Amino acid sequence: MGVDKIVKLVGVIFAIVAAFVAIPYSAAIVAVLGIAGAWYIAEDDRNRFLVAAIALNIAHGGLGAIPAVGGFITTALAGVNGLFLAAAATVIVLGVVDRLKP
């Protein structure tokens, strides 16, 4: 397992745990992990990642109606959504930088 997969996996696990457990500065840590994970997204996969981030941002609250587990799923996806939004902002900046390079 390479460094890229480890960084992404740690980010997702921390985002899910931070959604359920009160961790000081968890939002900042999730944002930093999202930024770090975005550096490893290949240029060919950036468009797919941005579409996935938009879809997750729209749909992460829609599963709350599932009895007994809907609240937990929504909370976990809200944490992952924060991770994806930080990574999406980084992907956008990386795309702009790539376009401005001579």
Summed up, what is this model?
75% of the residues lie in helices and 0% in strands. It is built from 4 helices and no strands.
Topology record:
Elements: H1 3-20, H2 26-38, H3 46-59, H4 70-100
Characterization of the model:
With 102 residues, the chain is mainly α. It contains 4 helices and no strands. The chain has one domain (3-100). The longest helix is centred in the C-terminal third of the chain and has 31 residues, at 70-100.
Which short descriptors sum up this protein?
102 residues; mainly alpha; 0% strand
Element order, helices and strands? HHHH
Helix content: over 70%
Average pLDDT, to the nearest integer?
A: 90
Biggest β-sheet: count, sense, barrel? none
Shape: globular
- End-to-end separation in angstroms reads 34 Å
The low-confidence parts are none
Q: What's the total helix number?
A: 4
Please compute the radius of gyration using only Cα atoms: 15 Å
